[in-house]
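seq as requested:
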Amino acid sequence: MKNMTEKNHHGDAETWRGGLGIGTWDLGLAGRYWRLLKGRDKGTVAITFLLSLPILLTVIGVLVQYALLANAQLTLNHAVQSAARSAMTALPTDPNLGERGGPTLVERSALMTLESLSPAAADVSNEGVAVAGALAQAGVNPPASYAARYNYAQQATRMDISPLGGTNTDYPRMAAPRVRITVWYDFHLTVPLLKDVVGRTDTVAGVSGRFLRLTSFLDVQLSPGRQAPTNGVGDP
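struct tokens:
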């Protein structure tokens, strides 16, 4: 059989004849239907996309905020560990010594870690400037905003040092005491929309917005090996 194709026009009708079959296609009417369906499909896709876009943005926002909160909690845990290492040597265990500034040094260790998590405060504190200067003298070049960020951490952080075991609440007068270091930190929420759902509205160190309080604690035993015989006022 000889295959051949002929194309004839009859008004709006177009007829194809081939060796394998014959079909008829009305280009005028079918074309109008095709353009109509195609236009409707575009509108359906656009409407579906617009309806699903808020849900997509919400899911992305939740993931971003969860990642930021997870990072903040890990940083806070690291700050408590730094405070615990400082407490082993900074908190006195000799009954005659008293605190001798130990809790301040322990808190400073935590603040130096939480600075990396903090926004810049509206002003700087003397302690933040002193810490930044000490780091510079040690060969570390802190950023220009270090003192302001340290000040935010200083005002957004609360620390508690409580003895464990026994009834004596004065840990400097306990032999080889164990203490629990608890740190609370006000984390600044920054993800749009979600920050209006969780946390509280407040102003911390001149920074206004929504804040979520994070907590971490760690138990540590102080080092009794540092004790030496002292006189009545705690001097060696």
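The two ends are 119 Å apart (CA to CA).
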